[in-house]
Amino acid sequence: MKIGMIGLGRMGINMARRLLQGGHEVVAYNRTPRKTDELAGEGAEATYSLSELAEKLTPPRVAWMMLPAGPAVDDHLLRLKEILYPGDIVIDGGNTYYKDDIRRAESLAEKEIRFMDVGVSGGVWGLKIGYCMMIGGSEETYRYIEPALESLAPKEGYLYCGPTGAGHFVKMVHNGIEYGMMQAYGEGFQILEASPYAETLNYAEVAHLWNQGSVVRSWLLELAEAAFSKE
């Protein structure tokens, strides 16, 4: 399918690359043109305004935003509401507050533009292993964009969570769990550092050990091991 990608930061540009690898057509737009040109060199179609992006998409147009949560999203949505048409689809893949999704969906619905919220986890590693995605909005629209979700995610790596806001609500809880885990790991290693055994412990080895069948194993612990291996 043909997808407009708005916002080519570290997440957005790699998601666009994964879509290209999956055989989709990507129409790219970024506030500054350097990353747009970079992605165009990899097979995307470059655009330098939201109006140009809308012109190059085919109905029903799909515009996927990867922007910082807050005013930037509202600013882009106001512009998209002016230039898109009834039946078109806007996807917000950022870390938006779920109640903002409800407000924005209602605003776009005034012009019969469909809105989907997609919580995305995977960071800069998502290009290689895929992105975990939590989706909210119309189930019918979810089915329409599913080919793109399949290309972006690893196997069983996306879920329709319910109506507008559900995707970002589940992602919000996910982030809370993530930060709690990082805090617990941090406190645990600090206790080791303060112990009488600190001089004999190699924290990279401890982190590696705990990922071998332990109930506290996780990808975050793999990242901790990599960090400890460097310092």
Share of β-strand residues: 15-25%
* Low-pLDDT segments, ≥5 res: none
Mean pLDDT: 97
**Spatial sequence of strands, sheet with the most strands:** 3-2-1-4-5-6-7-8
The portion of residues assigned to helices is 40-55%
How would you summarize the topology of this molecule?
Elements lengths: L1 E5 L3 H12 L3 E5 L3 H8 L4 E2 L3 H7 L5 E4 L5 H13 L5 E4 L5 H12 L4 E8 L4 H4 L2 E5 L2 H14 L5 E5 L3 H28 L9 H8 L8 H12 L1
Parallel strand pairs: 1-2, 1-4, 2-3, 4-5, 5-6, 7-8
Antiparallel strand pairs: 6-7
Helix pairs in contact: 9-10
Structural overview:
With 231 residues, the protein is an alpha/beta fold. It is built from ten helices and eight strands. Strands 3-2-1-4-5-6-7-8 form an eight-stranded mixed sheet, with helices on both faces. α1 (10-21) links the parallel β1 and β2. It is elongated and about 65 Å long.
Write a concise synopsis of the structure shown.
With 231 residues, the chain is α/β, with parallel strands linked by helices. It has helices at residues 10-21, 33-40, 50-56, 71-83, 98-109, 126-129, 139-152, 166-193, 203-210, 219-230; strands at residues 2-6, 25-29, 45-46, 62-65, 89-92, 114-121, 132-136, 158-162. The longest helix is centred in the C-terminal third of the chain and has 28 residues, at 166-193.
